[in-house]
């Protein structure tokens, strides 16, 4: 029996059905939403909630498009974003999200439509770009969710939960440098140390990122106290006119701004290199005018690795090597995460910690040999031999 005035009725299958206007088309035609339940009371309570949400978020009264909404969201977030992040957000929107969602009207948003649109972003049917990998797809989905959350904050839509299966991660396993390779690099640098060569040691023995090494000035070193302060990074970013430029900005995260102790062997090298350099002199370039940018320093690193007879690796492998070496030497994970400038130790564990067969063998012997030694099984085995 239908409940007049409430849009609730009992279906032939025994369930109760309630309906409500969740949006309107351009011609003001109602778009209905439906709720089902086992009892009338259950459907009525949920229907009251849905009607309240639709009234509260004013679903039918806004003509704003997704592109306009995203521009407003980006403008509101720009004050707390670094320039490089802001440029990257612009690129992601223009390249991936706007071609699909740009002209969509915000008032028509629904989980189903947004999830279908996100699948088009990940693997476009018109092949306007290659199917996205796990990292890019996750970034686009995160941005879409943040924009929708912002729209809900403005009461333009109701809160929405967008769920999409993302591509599987296919990242190549990074193989840290072996002890022998680290020794060859250190011997090569000690023979004729220069600031650029010592920069390899700062990555391999302090865990610095390449941009952080490029951003070092001599004033960041306190050689008497034996410490180094990381407080800026150098990177090259794209500009909206299609060109690129070098920017000097704060480190990657708040935790990346850190003070770390310098090993004794490095302190001696740095003392010999500093001379009478002023605090504002850039460490790698040796002048106060401009720093060395990462793409140029990467070329130098590859030359040094070849001269040291070490396999070709990406500069970030030196940072992975530092993390793995510290952990294998017994460094606790919390201290290691502070060395690396991570806000969460889980990031350190998931991305930078590697083991090898030799280390695994040492650990298995360390754990089980004392348990096995002196046991009845051990005595029985000795008697058998």
UniProtKB/TrEMBL annotation:
Entry keywords, A to Z: DNA integration, DNA recombination, DNA-binding
A biological process from GO: DNA integration
Domain Tyr recombinase: 172-365
Pfam families: Phage_int_SAM_3, Phage_integrase
Domain of life: Bacteria
InterPro entries linked to this entry: DNA_brk_join_enz, Integrase-like_cat_sf, Integrase_catalytic, Integrase_recombinase_N, Integrase_SAM-like_N, Tyrosine_recombinase_XerCD
A molecular function GO annotation: DNA binding
PROSITE patterns listed in its UniProt record: TYR_RECOMBINASE (PS51898)
Homology family: Belongs to the 'phage' integrase family.
Function noted in UniProt: Site-specific tyrosine recombinase, which acts by catalyzing the cutting and rejoining of the recombining DNA molecules.
Name the UniProt record assigns to this protein: Site-specific integrase
Native organism taxonomy: Bacteria, Bacillati, Bacillota, Clostridia, Eubacteriales
């Amino acid at each position: 029996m239908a409940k007049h005035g409430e849009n609730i009725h009992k279906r032939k299958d025994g369930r109760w059905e309630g309906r409500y206007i969740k949006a309107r088309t351009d011609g003001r035609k109602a778009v209905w939403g439906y709720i089902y339940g086992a009892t009338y009371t259950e459907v009525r309570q949920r229907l009251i909630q849905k009607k309240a949400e639709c009234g509260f978020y004013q679903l039918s009264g806004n003509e704003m498009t997704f592109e306009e909404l995203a521009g407003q969201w980006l403008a509101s977030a720009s004050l707390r974003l670094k320039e490089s992040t802001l440029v990257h957000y612009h690129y992601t929107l223009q390249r991936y999200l706007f071609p699909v969602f740009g002209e969509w009207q915000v008032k028509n948003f629904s989980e189903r439509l947004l999830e279908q649109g996100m699948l088009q972003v990940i693997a476009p049917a018109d092949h306007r770009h290659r199917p996205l990998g796990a990292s890019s797809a996750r970034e686009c989905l995160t941005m879409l969710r943040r924009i929708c959350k912002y729209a809900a904050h403005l009461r333009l839509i109701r809160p929405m939960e967008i769920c999409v299966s993302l591509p599987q991660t296919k990242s190549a396993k990074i193989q840290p440098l072996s002890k022998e390779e680290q020794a060859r690099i250190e011997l090569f640098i000690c023979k004729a140390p220069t600031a650029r060569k010592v920069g390899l040691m700062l990555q391999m023995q302090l865990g610095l990122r390449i941009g952080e090494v490029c951003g070092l000035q001599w004033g960041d070193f306190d050689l008497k106290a034996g410490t180094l302060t990381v407080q800026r990074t150098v990177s090259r970013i794209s500009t909206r006119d299609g060109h690129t430029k070098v920017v000097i900005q704060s480190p990657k995260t708040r935790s990346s701004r850190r003070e770390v102790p310098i090993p004794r062997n490095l302190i001696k090298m740095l003392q010999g290199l500093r001379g009478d350099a002023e605090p504002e002199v850039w460490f790698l370039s040796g002048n106060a005018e401009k720093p060395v940018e990462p793409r140029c320093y990467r070329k130098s690193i590859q030359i040094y690795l070849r001269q040291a007879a070490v396999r070709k690796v990406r500069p970030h492998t030196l940072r992975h090597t530092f993390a793995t070496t510290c952990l294998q030497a017994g460094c606790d994970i919390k201290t290691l995460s502070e060395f690396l400038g991570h806000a969460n130790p889980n990031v350190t564990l998931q991305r930078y910690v590697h083991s090898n067969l030799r280390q695994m063998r040492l650990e298995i012997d360390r754990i089980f040999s004392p348990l096995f030694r002196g046991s009845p099984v051990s005595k029985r085995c000795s008697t058998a031999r």
